[in-house]
Amino acid sequence: MNNQPSAESMDAYWMPFTANRDFKQSPRLIASAKGHYYISNDGRKIYDGFSGLWTSGIGHCHPKIVEAVQNQVATLDLCMGFQLGHDSAFELANKLTHLAPEGLDHAFFTNSGSESVDTALKIALGYHRARGDAGRTRLIGRQRGYHGVNFGGISVGGIGPNRKMFSANLINGVDHIFHTHSLEHAAFSHGQPKWGAHLADELEQLVALHDASTIAAVIVEPVAGSTGILPPPVGYLERLREICTKHGILLIFDEVITAFGRIGAPFAAERFGVTPDLITCAKGLTNGVIPMGAVLVSDTIYQAFMQGPEQSIELFHGYTYSGHPVAAAAGLATLQVYREEGSFEQARELETLFAEAIHQFDDHPMVIDVRNLGLMGAIELAPRDGAPGARGLDVHKQCFWEEDLVIRNGMDTLQFSPFLNSRPEDIQQMFAAVKRVLDKTT
Ligand SMILES: Cc1ncc(COP(=O)(O)O)c(C=O)c1O
């Protein structure tokens, strides 16, 4: 490969969630992006089968978002966000809460999914305290859940490697319900597995163990994403909602991936007809162009904080860049494009084709499960003996170098997140390329 940077020139950058030493021997570098393609440093046009990192559903460098960002950065680059405001943040909060399920009427802005999660957990704890129910301090997550990388998020999260280095310092008073994945009962399910709603009853067990009066909130991804796409069993989210309501526990949906069309609706809450008390989001809020996240909360939660002297701060929490003008401009432009182009409906229409295309791998000898919901999909490969994750990484690399295709691997699970406005033939060609790679992978 020509023009690859030297090892020394790459040494300073400690890359996130990357095998740094392996990557730097043969770096996969991107120079630019447009629409559905990246252009690599070596000039190849590479199809992006992951829409950025679940972020860029309407394609890279969308002209309307680029224009909005360019205008905003030249007009108001930054405005102090504490005790000072600007129109775009208020407008975005209005538009966002209109898009959200009924009753989620307020938005707190953050800069990422991880910050949204920690913000939501803090709001949940603060809410109970504000109501005089300060004993509710316990947080419940789910095994295999991914809620970002901050201390709250990894504590309620359920992915072993993300926790083990920090295990002595995770926050106190957290418990987990079971994950919903079962090769035995639900492998190769199309969409939501029929088996598994009963796993929500594990929450009743934790209530019996800890007592409801000690539990503040339960957080789950409606469709678990980073762990390898685990759609909720039919009836599972409804059951969680029932149990939370019965015991006065707040339900948080972490929709950092599932919001903004990824499963053919503005939010998974709408798609599944289950309304949580809080929603976290990020990624698709700005189509990934500028980092931004948000926590949507019910009016009841918001009003619980709006007490006491009016000149006092109600929530001692916030980020320098909360509601940043350039991010807000990107968010407004993105929501407008979703509306104008009918992006969520486009995604919904592609679902069947995507499901059929990914389930062609059900019979592949190397594959042990295939899962899909909306435009989220996973092909789980059998691991190599003694080398878990190696096969998945090899497939990712071969797709990049030999097929001009970016897909993601989480260990040995290949993950797919095509554009909301994909061309059907591109989805088919992507899976044809994956098949060529799998057929020759050992
Ligand atoms: C469900 C969920 N929550 C939180 C996060 C963390 O988001 P970020 O990487 O923006 O901090 C992610 C990232 O993929 C996610 O999928």
Task: Give a structural overview.
It is a single chain. By secondary structure, the protein is α/β, with parallel strands linked by helices. The chain folds into two domains: 8-62 and 343-440, Aspartate Aminotransferase, domain 1 (Alpha-Beta Complex), CATH 3.90.1150; 65-341, Type I PLP-dependent aspartate aminotransferase-like (Major domain) (Aspartate Aminotransferase, domain 2, 3-Layer(aba) Sandwich), CATH 3.40.640. Helices cover 38% and strands 16% of the residues. It is built from 16 helices and 15 strands. The protein has helices spanning 20-25, 51-54, 63-75, 87-99, 113-130, 151-156, 160-164, 183-186, 202-210, 236-247, 268-272, 299-305, 325-341, 343-358, 390-403, 424-440; strands spanning 30-34, 37-40, 45-48, 104-110, 138-142, 174-177, 215-220, 250-254, 278-281, 293-298, 367-373, 376-381, 405-406, 408-410, 413-416. The strands form three sheets. It has a seven-stranded mixed beta sheet, with helices on both faces. Helix 14 (343-358) runs parallel beside helix 16 (424-440) and helix 15 (390-403) crosses helix 16 (424-440). It is globular. The two termini are 24 Å apart. Bound molecules: pyridoxal-5'-phosphate (PLP). Pyridoxal-5'-phosphate binds next to helix 5.
